[in-house]
Design a protein that fits this description.
The complex is a heterodimer of chains A (353) and B (291). Chain A is of the alpha/beta class and 353 residues long. Helix content of chain A is 41%, strand content 11%. Chain A has a five-stranded parallel β-sheet with strand order 6-7-8-9-10. In chain A, helix 9 packs parallel to helix 11 (291-297). In chain B, the strands form three sheets. Chain B has a three-stranded mixed β-sheet with strand order 3-4-5. A three-stranded antiparallel β-sheet of chain B has the order 6-7-8. Chain B is elongated, with a radius of gyration of 22 Å. Classes of the chains: A alpha/beta (353), B alpha+beta (291). At the A-B interface, helix 1, helix 8 and helix 9 of A face helix 2, helix 5 and helix 8 of B.
């Protein structure tokens, strides 16, 4: 938990991965390019003294991840967002099964999402059912830019995707996390388009659509859609890292998000291991709007807003009872391992909630 | 990597006036996603001039920058340089890009984008139109603000036609039915430039200010349209911050050659290769640059 103005802020990192980009797992040059690009994002937005070397970055493992997230209590919980990339990585880059290893070790600390790919047809639907049955996934992370043989991607508003969203609704998989990132194909029309979110969100009002990276580089289209679709949310990964070297830009983006979406639909995420909550949480919590931005947007990054953005909004989506969690964390395995008893008020029995 | 600095025809041997002329031409080429000059963004690695032959090498912030955008910058650079009367031929090389080889070959062979990427989903023209439209929306706010600040009513602002505005020197004159208001020319001229490029305001009777969808603005909606215009420019700037950080991550804070010197001051010809493992891969595939 983080303390701000004397108040505790329960932090749920809404976007983490446990990936494997070791060379022996790479089966396509795309896999190497992919991790190299990630590494550019890492070094581009990480304070110099906090940067990892590339080998560590390729594969950090469950142990380091646990320590990075929880060791200094930067985060209290985290949400796994798998990215399969089966055409690039032999065993997958960051699959539900890989994430499950850690999620099942500390089930009280992690939420495990699954994934689907509508191009997998009937087999994909069975896999989705299997994920629900095996892991009781509350959501999916979708990567519409993923390669699959000849296909270089898919759209959320296609008939095939709708069939999978229907299945999610039937199974009670409510949280649809969609990556919306840079252009992927020679001249893909998607380059300026988050419209597929629009159609999907209005067609499935019972599902929540969390757009990662707040649609960057299409923040404008994203905000306009989100302003009209109440079940669309913005995930802050990438934007939050701008606090490193573009704090003013971060303030502007937050101003826009709070203006168009309001404080209930903006969700913190580190995108670990792109960035490490170990330092990022502190940095985001300390972010301030300039006077000019306060005037312009009429919003504040005050305790109430940050409480929501850093934890409560994610908790709402995943039915996490924060007060219950605080009690549980007084003496769970993580607290024992990192000696966080005093932090959660356990040993002293002094928790006043 | 090519050792071209040993080439006696390059760099210091160039005519400084010609070099400057090339830079000025390249300065007109924009990164379409950011609406900023590729010179200002520091994408240019090297310029070599040999008589009437000009070679320009450039690198984008990531190997995954949209091939369509890369294509636009490469062809624009070629056409701008060849617009110089002494420049007989411009050769453009896109370095360290997933489609660098095809784009370099295609642009210099004067092929079309469609010939170079037969399986692309659409045409460069569509992307250019979408980009131009974003630039139109993002520049409208400052122009409208200039008028509102000069006490022009929202009703009057939304009713203006192209012919009501005249830019002369530092001033823009706005005709409000007999009454003329004078405002700073810059935001108005900037907007007019964008809105003409996007094709939204071309004739004298065209409505001057429009919604992002391209419709006339009801006066009571002017405020929300202004906020959408603000949002469009925040978006462009946000992407600029990402591109800039990736550019630095790839090349270090001191530019492509790590010398700390801007290419403008260099003797030219020095081309540093991205020394990551990516160099091993030269095939033509694409993917998103993010998770």
């Amino acid at each position: 938990m983080y303390e701000m103005d004397g108040e505790e802020i329960f932090v749920i990192d809404g976007h983490v991965h446990l990936w494997d980009a070791r060379q022996e797992n790479i089966i396509h040059e795309g896999g190497e390019q992919f991790i190299q690009c990630f590494y550019d994002y890492h070094t581009g937005f990480t304070p110099e003294e906090k940067q990892w070397d590339i080998d560590e970055y390729r594969h950090y493992g469950a142990d380091k991840m646990t320590e990075d997230l929880f060791g200094n209590a930067a985060a209290d919980m985290a949400i796994f967002q798998p990215t399969y990339l089966d055409d690039f990585y032999d065993e997958g880059f960051n699959t539900t099964e890989q994430n499950a290893e850690l999620a099942e070790e500390y089930p009280e600390r992690f939420v495990l999402n699954g994934s689907f790919d509508p191009r997998d047809g009937e087999e994909g639907l069975r896999y989705l059912e299997h994920l629900k049955e095996e892991y009781d996934i509350p959501g999916v992370k979708l990567y519409t830019a993923e390669w699959r043989g000849e296909s270089k991607g898919w759209r959320l508003d296609s008939d095939e995707a709708f069939e999978f969203l229907e299945k999610c609704a039937d199974l009670g998989i409510e949280n649809i996390n969609a990556h919306k990132g840079p252009t992927i194909r020679p001249l893909n029309r998607d380059a300026f388009d988050v419209k597929d979110i629009d159609d999907a969100a209005s067609s499935f009002p019972e599902l929540n659509f969390i757009v990662n990276h707040v649609g960057l580089p299409r923040l404008d289209d994203f905000c306009w859609i989100a302003a009209q679709e109440p079940n669309v949310y913005g995930g802050l990964a990438v934007a939050s890292a701008m606090t490193t070297n573009r704090p003013r830009k971060f303030g502007e983006i937050m101003g826009e998000l709070l203006y168009w979406l309001g404080e209930d639909r903006v969700l913190f995420g580190s995108d670990y291991a792109l960035w490490n909550p170990d330092w990022l949480v502190d940095q985001v919590m300390n972010a301030e709007l300039t006077d000019e931005q306060r005037d312009e947007y009429g919003v504040e990054l005050d305790v109430e807003t940050m409480k929501k953005v850093m934890g409560e909004n994610v908790a709402e989506l995943y039915d996490i009872d924060i007060e219950e969690k605080k009690r549980q964390f007084r003496d769970d395995d993580i607290t024992e391992r990192f000696d966080l008893g005093a932090h959660y008020g356990g040993d002293a029995g002094a928790a006043a909630d | 990597m090519s050792g071209s600095s040993a080439d006696p025809t390059s760099g210091a041997g160039d005519d400084p006036a010609k070099r400057q002329a090339v830079i000025e031409r390249l300065d007109r080429v924009e990164d379409p996603e950011l609406a900023r000059s590729i010179v200002e963004l520091d994408y240019i690695d090297a310029i070599e001039i040999d008589g009437g032959r000009v070679e320009v090498r450039f690198t984008l912030p990531t190997a995954w920058c949209s091939p369509a955008f890369a294509w636009m910058m490469a062809t624009d650079a070629r056409d701008e340089v060849e617009g110089l009367d002494w420049a007989d031929e411009a050769r453009i090389e896109l370095c360290d890009h997933m489609h660098g080889a095809e784009i370099t070959t295609g642009v210099n062979a004067r092929d079309t984008f469609g010939e170079t990427f037969p399986d692309a989903d659409g045409g460069v023209a569509e992307v250019r139109a979408a980009i131009a439209d974003k630039a139109r929306v993002s520049t409208q706010r400052a122009a409208v603000d200039a008028l509102l600040d000069a006490a022009v009513d929202p009703e009057q602002v939304v009713a203006l036609d192209r012919s009501d505005v005249d830019v002369a020197g530092d001033e823009a004159h706005v005709d409000l039915g007999g009454l003329s208001v004078v405002v700073d020319a810059d935001p108005i001229a900037d907007y007019l430039d964008r809105v003409e490029t996007s094709g939204h305001v071309t004739g004298p009777d065209d409505t001057l200010f429009l919604t992002p969808e391209g419709d006339p603005i009801p006066a009571e909606r002017l405020d929300v349209v202004q906020k959408r215009s603000r949002l469009a420019s925040v978006n462009m700037g946000g992407q600029g911050a990402v591109c800039d950080a990736l550019h630095r991550a790839r090349h270090g804070p001191d530019g492509p050659d790590g010398s700390g010197a801007s290419y403008v001051d260099q003797s030219g010809g020095e081309l540093s290769a991205y020394d990551g493992d990516v160099d091993e891969f030269t095939s033509t595939w694409t993917l998103s640059s993010d998770d």
